[in-house]
Design goal:
Length: 156
């Protein structure tokens, strides 16, 4: 099976809790990850702090998330490991090809993510029309910038 795109590496993990305080205590205070940004989206019901692990093109985001409204969906704290993000060299081709193979994507299509990269989410649950999905895990495909693509290809 020939794919018209390549998954390059891990871009992020996103963890959630009812409050970000215990997440910051662990990831920033105890483990020493560097705060990098903040993102709030009423539509996605999320208040998110972005912290960073590593450096350069191999840097990985750890998104610390809490719901804006715990009574509303989506609940970014359930499950606590909310999603994983993967760098992809050509997001548009990946979405087109994966959809044609029967992979289910979450609503919203390709759009800008919290860190400013184009993203699309694979749905965690398959259905009759799209029998392939994340098997319970939300997977984010993230368009890698040119420097990340070059670094991963050089390292390969």
């Amino acid at each position: 099976m020939s794919r018209p795109f390549e998954i390059l590496g891990l871009q992020q993990i996103a963890v959630g809790a009812a409050s970000k305080e215990p997440l910051r205590k662990l990831w920033v205070d105890m483990l020493g990850l560097a705060p990098s940004g903040h993102f709030v989206s009423a539509k996605e019901n999320v208040d998110e702090d972005i912290v960073l692990l590593g450096s350069g093109p191999f840097q990985v985001e750890v998104d610390l998330m809490q719901p804006l409204d715990p009574a509303r969906s989506p609940r970014v704290d359930q499950p606590a490991l909310n999603h994983v993000g993967l760098w992809v060299d050509n997001l548009a081709l990946a979405v087109e090809w994966l959809t044609a193979q029967g992979v289910r994507f979450a609503p919203g299509g390709i759009r800008k993510g919290a860190a400013g990269h184009d993203i699309a989410f694979l749905h965690p649950k398959a259905n009759e029309e799209f029998p392939i999905a994340g098997a319970g895990v939300l997977v984010e495909l993230v368009q890698a910038p040119p420097a990340v693509i070059a670094a991963y290809r050089k390292g390969a």
